[in-house]
Amino acid sequence: MVFFGSGNAWRPGRPCNVFPAEGGTAPTADVAERTNAVRAEAHVPTPGVLDELSSIVASARAALSYFLDLISLEARRAGLALMWMVAWGLVAAIFGVTAWLGLMAALAVWAVSLGFPPIAAVIAVAVINLVAGAGLIYVCTSISHNLLFAATRRQVAGKCPVKPPAP
């Protein structure tokens, strides 16, 4: 404990009756009232085990409440960020599609300038795009087995890892 000029121990939330540094008198307060207040504080029973446990539970509840507030604020922030990412991704996809359509139109116009009939040039560009799209869909379906989390499922199930056959 820290002792000041008045002889009373200082406690948080209690004024520290310190004499002014440049001399003068102490704050005007009835000395008897201060003495009675100190005696009353001295006779306050110490908190029991249940009081301590309830204060621990209250502190834990407050900490959990603050933690959940933090999580909710960050979840809201993440949700807004995700929404903006989806919106700007959609705008970027629209720009990409229009650019692709422009390139395909330019390819068709170039084919027409080489002497192809206009309808044949448009059909050729459409068929090229259809074949390229089908190839990309085939590649996507062939690598979709990576989405099954096979190793994780084996680990959770407690199965032995699959060993590749010897060459």
Distance between the termini: 79 Å
> What is the H/E order?
HHHH
- Main β-sheet description: none
Determine the number of helices (DSSP H or I, runs of at least 4 residues). Answer: 4
Going by helix content, strand content and strand pairing, the class is mainly alpha
Shape: elongated
Which spans of ≥5 residues are poorly predicted at pLDDT below 50? 1-8
Explain what the structure shows.
Helices cover 66% and strands 0% of the residues. It is mainly alpha-helical. Helix 2 packs antiparallel against helix 3 (118-142). The chain is elongated and about 115 Å long.
Give keywords:
66% helix, elongated, mainly alpha, single chain
Briefly, what is this?
With 167 residues, this protein is mainly alpha-helical. Helices cover 66% and strands 0% of the residues.
What's the layout of helices and strands?
Blueprint: H1 31-42, H2 49-113, H3 118-142, H4 150-157
